[in-house]
Amino acid sequence: MLRSLFRLFVAGSCITSALYVPPAHAATRSDVGGSIHPDRVPLSSQALLFQDDFGDRNYTVAGGADGLTWSLIGGDASVDDVDGSFQLGADRGISFIATNQRIAGDEYTLRFDGCITWGAPGRIVVLDKDANNYYSVGLGEQAGIYRKLNGSEVQLHTDPESLVRLPHGSAGTGAFKVYPHNTGSSVVIEADKAGDGVDYDIEIVDADPAAVAMFTQTGIGMMSGGGEPYSPWFYLDNVAIYEGLVVDPYDPVMYYVDQSHPLASDVNPGTESLPWRTIQKAADTTSASRSRMGAVALLVR
Asked: Any idea which of 42-56, 217-231, 232-246 has the lowest mean pLDDT?
């Protein structure tokens, strides 16, 4: 008989390394999985602020009242047909393009599709104040979360497990979310690559007072990943900016504990047909795991 059903939420763990130490004021998390935001709300309750699918083939013209317009900060950019879809591309080298619109309030969620046509993609930019002040999330070889403040750039998260990274190669695509929030006492950046069953994979909390003071009334952008100048290798499509925090529901990972099952053993995978024998095994597995489980449902018989 089923005696109890409960959920465990695995908290994100801090990343430290002998080779990497976050700058002062910055804390990092990987495997966030929604555990630090119990007040997360579903997508349907958040207002759409701006959007752009580049179907008009002109990034300087807004497509409707909530459309975005973009200005080139450096290098070059173009709207190209990529596999039947018009997308915004930043030329390889040092190219930077940003929106002209400023987002009222200091908390929003950016959704977008990223595409790599060859080599390593660049970065998506959030909390863009100007060319010398912004945060960016690297989607390729320059993976992780970066902050540029008064022209000086530091890396705040290395994404050591490649949780929000597109693979090096041809025609790699992914759906992403980035959630920036200036709380008034710190700047929070969360990033997510869809498809892994966990909502928001990596996070930084930047408590630098200078950053908190700087990053208000900002925009978004994209930048290339360096190298010799060349036509775009990194493209952006289906951009949507929502007010506040957007979350996506995920079914919890299911594990089973059944002491009466003839095949029950703590060496089992914890499935219904091959359950664990003890609750301690379940607790040890979920607390020690680095597999980005997020929500876990445990059935005990």
From this structure: 42-56
> What is the Cα gyration radius of the chain?
21
Residue in the structure block whose two tokens are 């029950």: 264
Lowest mean pLDDT among 168-172, 223-227, 240-244: 168-172
- What are the backbone dihedrals phi and psi of residue 186, each rounded to the nearest 5 degrees, phi first? -160, 165
Q: How far is CA 143 from CA 8, 132, 156, in A?
A: 30, 20, 11
Q: What is the spatial distance between Cα 8 and Cα 11, in angstroms, rounded to a whole number? A: 9
pTM reported for the whole predicted model: 0.76
Beta pairing partners, 97: 72, 222
Which is more confident, 249 or 23? 249
For the chain, give every domain's residue range. Answer: 26-243, 251-300
Which two structure tokens, joined as six digits, stand for 146? Answer: 């970066």
Report whether 253 contacts 8 (CB < 8 A): no
- The CATH architecture of the domain made up of 26-243 is Sandwich (2.60)
